[in-house]
Q: What sequence folds into this?
């Protein structure tokens, strides 16, 4: 009977756990210990209070100014800032490769880009929808690795699988792709980005 009650009504949560979590998110944030990786370089964070939310980068440090410096506000601001920076960087890589496809004789339209946090992949190509999804964590990698992943996904618009033709096409655009792939795997392992 106890199992049926658990299935129907679930376990009771300890009193105060949700309230404690909310209080932690709303409590003033004085400093950020975590370092961020951005385009292959580490950045520490200095936190300030000000009238406008902003981020300024200088020599390995980001100065983040928040109107209300709480953990929740900081996390929301950083997520938004990283997503905007990733979109700009990923679009730059697409804009770099599309003319190369046109010069090679492939009429490839620029795909739409969606950004998600993914656990096991850097990107996915949905060639029937004209869509490429890219991992938000890819913004942590150096630019050459970002450009390699974007190229990899764009090549799927021409060859839809990982056959010899696909790798021949990839190598035609980027002869040293294997080295970049190996470096990216080592980078991800070293920084525990994806599995």
A:
């Amino acid at each position: 009977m106890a199992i049926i009650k658990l299935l129907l009504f679930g376990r009771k949560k300890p009193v105060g756990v949700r309230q404690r979590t909310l209080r932690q998110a709303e409590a003033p944030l004085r400093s950020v210990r975590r370092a961020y990786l951005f385009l292959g370089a580490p950045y520490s964070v200095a936190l300030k209070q000000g009238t406008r939310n902003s981020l300024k980068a200088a020599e390995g440090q980001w100065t983040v100014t928040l109107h209300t410096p709480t953990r929740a506000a900081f996390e929301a601001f950083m997520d938004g800032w990283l997503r905007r920076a990733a979109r700009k960087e990923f679009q730059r890589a697409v804009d770099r490769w599309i003319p190369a496809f046109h010069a090679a004789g492939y009429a490839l339209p620029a795909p739409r880009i969606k950004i998600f946090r993914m656990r096991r992949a850097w990107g996915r190509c949905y060639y029937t929808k004209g869509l490429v999804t890219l991992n938000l964590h890819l913004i942590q990698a150096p630019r050459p690795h970002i450009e390699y992943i974007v190229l990899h996904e764009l090549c799927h618009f021409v060859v839809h699988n990982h056959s010899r033709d696909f790798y021949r096409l990839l190598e035609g655009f980027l002869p040293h792709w294997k080295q970049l792939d190996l470096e990216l795997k080592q980078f991800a392992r070293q920084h525990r980005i994806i599995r």
